[in-house]
Design a protein that fits this description.
Layout (H helix, E strand, L loop, with lengths): L6 H9 L4 H41 L25 H18 L7 H10 L3 H8 L12 H15 L2 H10 L8 H13 L18 H16 L4 H8 L8 H39 L6 H11 L45 E3 L10 E6 L7 E6 L6 E4 L3 H4 L12 E3 L5 E2 L1 E11 L2 E10 L6 E2 L1 H6 L34 H11 L42 H16 L4 E2 L10 E7 L6 E5 L18 H6 L24 H6 L2 E3 L2 E4 L1
Parallel strand pairs: 1-5, 3-9, 4-8, 11-13
Antiparallel strand pairs: 2-3, 2-7, 5-6, 7-8, 10-14, 11-12, 13-14
Helix pairs in contact: 8-9, 9-11, 10-11
């Protein structure tokens, strides 16, 4: 192809800098030109403002023949007494002085005119204090300076310096605020805090300037603590404290802030150099070696639907009838889909292991609809409860009544399963209920009950697969033979099962089973020296509806050899009264004996008994199952020697008995 570019364009390309130094020089030249343009623009704005300012001066001086129309300077207004502080007052005082100096009013106005000018710069609350005499202003003598001093005196008397000191201690550097502006604000607030600038030194007894040092220390500390940039703060804190003065801290802060600004400008300049280099490369017609640009060029040459070479006609694309696996739309493939990727959804695994003996009949209820028992497969590997579409009629619902199912169901091989929807149901088995979400599959082997459902319906224990029943492997024939007890069983059913398994421990109520005595020598009751026998001849009254039960209970105790009757005609030396009380929570009688008169005369033996904390400390770590046992009539199993038995003789309506 012939070269159609002009000679001027070729010369321009030849003059384009390629060396990095030349590129930097060209960039600096452009920046210099832009700075000059900004400087010229600022000068023009300043000249326009100076002209407006001069016109305002001419108008305010009262030139009658003048016809210049310009904006007049507004009188600075002092805030109301409730909102003012000393820093704001000094700022207003300076602005008001500048205003009067610029307007040249003081030289031309009378005393009343100057007072009127000052009133125009005060908040209405100040004018009320003026007119009512609270400020003690004499309109015939006081000039503006005198009135301002009285206002300052009023502010000092009525404003608590603690407010300014609190503001000083809480003043931090704002975002985008320079070091000098931040320091000026701190110094202005400090001057309003009521500290003595030059107090009398306690050492020198003179105004030696130590007050200035205290002020500089306050400003230095607040300046460092309130810095927003932690890097600058770290630089300042690296200075030894003995050398850390206010001047040194300001110097370091200014240098660090300036270096950061310079670094930001250099980074900006580097980006501009890169842009200039890209522009010069474009002018030279160089080929960009960036792999991203190559892929972008290739993207223009590919079909946006199938990803292959671009077709001459859209009908020639073989993906025009294909469904996208990402968005589900027709006409393009997944790797060319421009829709956002699908969000991650719940992924639930469903087992499919099934034998004929593993099925369990469970009733599934959905609302008030008719229902019937369905055979379910308990699967501890399943994470959700599943039912097939052909079983919906048995649980009382239809496919059209299902809700949308957003969960992603997977089989044992992690293959996806198609869900028709889900429905809330209550599963019942032998009095136990379990509310769950049933996921409905189009096809399957049948309903599947998850691990959570198996636990809720009592098919497996709560701690499954941990050990819940331990048998002896060395002698399996001597195992306890107790069936696994589940938490879902009621207390009554567990009690009945234990009674059936251990009849020798829990006999029927009408059977008398002798108690096995405890090991060891018989117990001996030792009395204090000089103790006289105690006799209580009066027998306590027993309610009529308890008399037969109490008498039968005493006969059982005699048969179990717990007590024995005192022969008639024998007078016991010791005698106490039997007391019958109701058992806790029932109307059944409990037989007791009142030995309280005997307790003060008994020598109490010492027996080492550990506190609960010591008992718990003896439990080996990792233990999760604990058993609490209560001895059956533990006191009855303790033998007494003959002399001690006679001491605890008690009377009944049917005679005396001893233990």
């Amino acid at each position: 192809m012939p070269n159609t570019r002009s000679e001027g364009a070729m010369k321009e390309e030849d003059q384009t800098p390629t060396d990095p130094v030349q590129l930097m020089m060209a960039m600096m030249k452009e920046m210099k030109e832009e700075a000059k343009k900004r400087e010229d623009q600022l000068m023009r704005q300043l000249q326009e403002q100076a002209q407006d300012f001069a016109a305002a001066l001419q108008t305010n001086r009262g030139n009658a023949g003048g016809s210049t129309k310009s904006k007049k300077m507004d009188v600075p207004v002092l805030k109301c007494p409730e909102d003012i502080n000393l820093a704001d007052f000094r700022d207003w005082q300076q602005r008001f002085a500048d205003y009067t100096e610029v307007q040249k009013i003081m030289e031309e106005c009378t005393l009343s005119g100057r007072q009127s000018l000052l009133r125009s710069g005060l908040d209405p609350a100040w004018t009320k204090l003026w007119s009512t005499g609270i400020l003690e202003i004499d309109d015939r003598k006081d000039d503006i300076n005198d009135i301002i001093k009285k206002i300052l005196h009023y502010i000092r008397e009525h404003r608590n310096p603690l407010l300014d000191r609190k503001e000083f201690l809480e003043r931090n550097q704002h975002a985008g605020e320079s070091i000098d502006v931040y320091y000026s604000a701190l110094k202005s607030i400090d001057e309003s805090c009521g500290y003595d600038v030059n107090p009398t030194c306690k050492v020198c007894d003179d105004a030696c300037g130590h007050g200035d040092e205290l002020q500089q220390e306050r400003l230095r500390d607040r300046l460092i603590c309130g810095l927003k940039d932690q890097a600058i703060q770290q630089k300042v804190l690296a200075i030894p404290f003995k050398d850390l003065t206010l001047k040194k801290a300001l110097e370091v802060c200014r240098v660090e802030a300036a270096s950061k600004e310079t670094q930001a400008s250099l980074n900006k300049s580097e980006r501009q150099v890169n842009r200039l280099k890209e522009r010069s490369s474009y002018k030279k017609g160089k080929i960009d070696n960036n792999p991203l640009s190559k892929s972008a060029q290739k993207a223009d040459e590919r079909c946006s639907n199938c990803g292959r070479k671009k077709h001459q006609k859209p009908d020639q694309c073989w993906a025009r009838d294909k469904d996208c696996n990402n968005c589900g739309k027709t006409g393009h493939l997944k790797h060319m889909c421009r829709s956002e990727p699908k969000k991650e959804v719940n992924r639930m695994t469903i087992g499919q292991v099934k034998t004929s003996d593993d099925l369990v009949k469970i009733t599934a209820k959905i609302g008030n609809a008719d229902h019937q028992e369905v055979e379910w497969l308990p699967d501890t590997g399943a994470e959700c409860d599943v039912i097939t579409a052909d079983c919906l009629k048995k649980v009382g619902t239809k496919v059209k009544d299902l809700r949308k199912d957003k969960a992603e169901l997977c089989g044992p091989d992690q293959g996806r399963l198609k869900s028709l929807g889900k429905v809330t149901a209550t599963l019942e088995r032998e009095g136990m209920k379990y509310k769950t979400e049933l996921h409905v599959l189009e096809k399957g082997t049948g309903p599947i009950l998850s691990k959570a459902g198996c636990i809720a319906l009592g098919l497996i224990p709560t701690g499954w697969p941990h050990v819940v029943n331990k048998l002896s492997l060395s002698s399996p024939d001597e195992g306890n033979g107790v069936d696994m007890l589940l938490k879902s069983q009621s207390a009554a059913s567990i009690r009945e099962q234990l009674f059936q398994e251990f009849p020798e421990v829990f006999p029927p109520d009408d059977e008398v089973l002798p108690l096995k005595p405890m090991k060891g020598p018989p117990m001996k009751i030792e009395l204090l020296p000089g103790t006289s026998p105690i006799r209580r001849y009066r027998c306590n009254t027993i309610p009529l509806h308890w008399q037969d039960k109490v008498k039968a209970h005493l006969e059982t105790m005699v048969q179990k050899q717990i007590i024995e009757r005192v022969p008639q005609g024998e007078a016991p030396e010791w005698l106490f009264s039997m007391v019958v009380v109701p058992k806790a929570g029932t109307d059944e009688p409990r037989v007791t004996v009142d030995f309280s008169p005997l307790n003060p005369f008994v020598k109490r033996p010492m027996y080492p008994c550990r506190v609960p904390a010591e008992e718990v400390a003896q439990i080996p770590p990792g233990m999760t199952h604990f058993t609490v046992l209560d001895g059956r009539h533990g006191y009855w199993q303790v033998l007494l020697d003959k002399p001690s038995s006679k001491i605890i003789t008690f009377n009944t309506p049917w005679g005396c008995s001893v233990t």
